[in-house]
Amino acid sequence: MELRDFVDTLRRRWLSVVILTALGLAVAAMFAFTATPIYQATTRIFVSTQSVGSAVEAFQGSSYTQARMQSYVEVTTDPLVLDRVIKELNLDMSAETLAGKISARVIPDTVLIEVVASNESAEEAAEISNSVAHHLREVVIGDLEEQVGDDSSLVNLTVVKRATEPQSPTSPSIPLFLVVGGVLGLIAGLAFAFARQALDTRVHSERDVAATTKHPVLAGFLFDPTAAKEPLTVHAGPRSPRAEAFRSLRTSLQFIDFGAKSRTLVVTSSLASEGKSTIAANLAIALADAGKSTLLIDADLRRPKVAEYMALEGGVGLSDVLVGRATLTETLQPWGEEGRLFVLPAGSRPPNPSELLGSDSMAELLETLRGEFEQIIIDAPPLLPVTDAAVLSKVTDGALVVCAVGLTRTTQLAHALGGLENIDAKVLGLVVNMLPTRGPDSYGAYGYEYVEK
After folding, report:
1. What is the DSSP-derived secondary structure letter of residue 202?
2. Within a domain: residue 150?
3. Residue 113: what are its φ and ψ, rounded to 5°?
4. What region does 273 belong to: left with phi over 0, alpha with psi -120 to 50, or beta?
5. In 231-332, which ranges are E strands?
6. Same structural domain for residues 180 and 276?
7. DSSP code string of 104-134
8. Structure confidence by residue, pLDDT tens digits, 89-108
């Protein structure tokens, strides 16, 4: 993953990261404020040896003590000591339970043992710590170490710091809880964001399309909530951002080598509802506005839309011409004041659209129309549900594939394009539709602002 992909994912999924981080903080705060406070009290014991002879013997005694320090630490939590503590303080717990509340250690580079008692009560924590130190001394001196001289022990344990009642609990540490909760929430949020991004194969931008196919992206169209009511943007709002995008698409097509004077192209998509009919109609208007004699054919014989968008009578059209029920003269309808754009509606809905569009009659009809029009735009059905568009692509100069942001998945787009490539149909390029106007995938803000002014 590149840095740009990382940043785009964060910008696209930032809300998930924020919510899970806040949730982690909330859970941590709940535990911190509801957890039982624990107090710790500490006692320190100094371990020494009695000097009974020469300096050499004293040194040997000191070494003896150092070697046994860790053993004294282990004895601290032994029932031999803790049973006496329980009896003295009248504690309602076993030696094993009490051992879980006691910790002891040798302070490095010293002969000091530190005994720490933890308890829900500050007063009881201090009492336990002091009692453990007291009885540890009794056990070591009286029971474990050998006696020397006048029945005194070679080793002596002296309490140098008695435990006092702690004023504040050592846990829970609210700042620590919040930091840990926030970090864990942030990690969970990032993991969720990147997992969701990895599983989301929908097209979000032109970059996603470019990463899916080698075919060029010829144009991008911003999402327009009014497109359903006013689909003919080039006609209704010639200075709008979408109208300028159609003129940009028209310009891009001029640089494609069609290999013929008359250019015939199919406008299709992977799935339904990606906006192919709207794009086909507006592209035809833009071409006609540029002075080209243009024909718009509605070859979507299953769900025709062109006649509705162009406000024309669509009862008779392409299907009727192909079966011989009508002629071109009877079905071609002029559109617009300039007289350069004509429309051939879909006509009656046949039972066999694919066979009809792939027939010799269709190929002959297109050959005839090429001699009469400079530009022929064919609105065809989507590629994945049916084969109509693929069939038409073989008898035209190529296909213009529409891809809708947030609707088309990259796998669907790749499969649709692969279907065209498998039959050696030419893919002229792609058009990305419904691009967002805001957010990390927003498109074309600078140029469109200029146009609107």
Report:
1. B
2. yes
3. -110, 130
4. left
5. 263-269, 294-298
6. no
7. EEEPTTSSEEEEEEEESSHHHHHHHHHHHHH
8. 999 999 999 999 999 999 99
Q: Which residues have CB under 8 Å from 220's CB, separation 6+?
A: 206, 245, 431, 432, 433, 435, 443, 444
In a shared domain, residues 112 and 221 = no
Statement: the pTM of the whole predicted model exceeds 0.90 = no
Considering the domain architecture, whether residues 431 and 338 belong to the same structural domain is answered as yes
CB 408, CB 272: distance < 8 Å:
no
- Residue 452 above 80 pLDDT? no
Classify strands 112-119 and 39-49 as parallel, antiparallel or unpaired.
Answer: antiparallel
Distance between CA 157 and CA 138 in Å, rounded? 9
The percentage of residues in the chain with a pLDDT greater than 90, rounded to a whole number, is 58
Q: Which residue has the higher pLDDT, 49 or 80?
A: 80
CATH of residue 361: 3.40.50.300
Q: How confident is the model at residue 205, as a pLDDT?
A: 83
Evaluate whether residue 167 is within a structural domain: no
Residue 3's CB is within 10 A of a number of other CB atoms, namely 7
Higher pLDDT residue, 287 or 202?
A: 287
Domain coverage including residue 12: 3-35+173-198
- Determine phi and psi for 279, rounding to 5 degrees: -65, -40
Q: Which DSSP helix (H) or strand (E) runs through 376?
A: strand 375-379
Query: Residue 43: which of 138, 143, 128 has the closest Cα?
Result: 128
Helix, strand or coil for residue 270?
A: coil
Residue carrying the six token digits 């840990």? 180
State which amino acid sits at residue 95.
A
166 is a domain residue: no
366 and 221 housed in the same domain: yes
The one-letter code for the residue type at 350 is P
Contact indicator for 232, 308 with CB cutoff of 8 Å:
no
Residues 213 and 151 in one domain: no
Q: What is the CA radius of gyration of the chain?
A: 43
- Please, how many CA atoms are within 13 Å of residue 420, restricted to the half-sphere of its CB? 34
Closest CA to 295 of 316, 310, 276, 308: 310
How many angstroms separate the Cα of 308 from the Cα of each of 144, 192, 326, 335, 353?
Answer: 103, 45, 20, 13, 20
* Residue 451 · residue 421 · CB < 8 Å: no
Comparing CA positions, the residue from 326, 396, 332, 384 lying closest to residue 358 is 396
Cα(55)–Cα(172) distance, integer angstroms: 50
Least confident of 125-134, 152-161, 410-419: 152-161
- List all residues 6 or more positions away from 4 whose beta carbon is below 8 Å from its beta carbon: none
Q: Are 25 and 182 in contact (CB under 8 A)?
A: yes
